[in-house]
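This part of the workshop introduces the protein records we will be handling. Backbone structure tokens are a discrete shorthand for how the chain folds in space. Once this layout is familiar, the rest of the handout is easier to follow. The record below serves as our worked example for the rest of this section.
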Amino acid sequence: MTTEIDWTPKARAILDAASELFYAQGIHAVGVEAIAERAGVTKRTLYDRFGSKERLVVEYLLARDASWRAFLADRLAAADSSVVAQVSAVFDASHVWAAERGPKGCSMINAHAEISDPAHPAYPVIVGQKRWMLELFTRIVDSAGTRAPGAIAARLMLLHEGALVAAGMGVVEDAFDEARSLAVELLRSERVA
């Protein structure tokens, strides 16, 4: 069983440093020496708090996901309860998040590019976050009582993930706006809107 982390100020500093470096440079490119130096601690302190770099990667991804879920929850709560408004709120939240906190793309997609081994302790976090997003789209669509909420949610998920990648790479201008428009068009064609 994984031991609970004692979230001392040094542990928080380590996580903050690791989060910044992992997102900016990539997980494999960043060593524990660089994280310890950025956090102003020794490598021994890093290992005392987290046990391994893998555990630190897991905590980085869990923290990023928790922040995203809270950010999204606020936007969903502020939106009208209609399916179109709720789905639009997801795309709009992703647009704002990407502009403010994710100019290099989705941290989960980026992490998956480096960690695709199901045996890695971070793998369930990465895949779990994407499954949660699919479940969210399914719940939103299902609230309208549609016949095939899973199929429609899968299409919405594909639009969303495509926008994340395209925006992160800067290859499609206004990727989230375009994807939101296509999502709304899909909902209307399926008579969900």
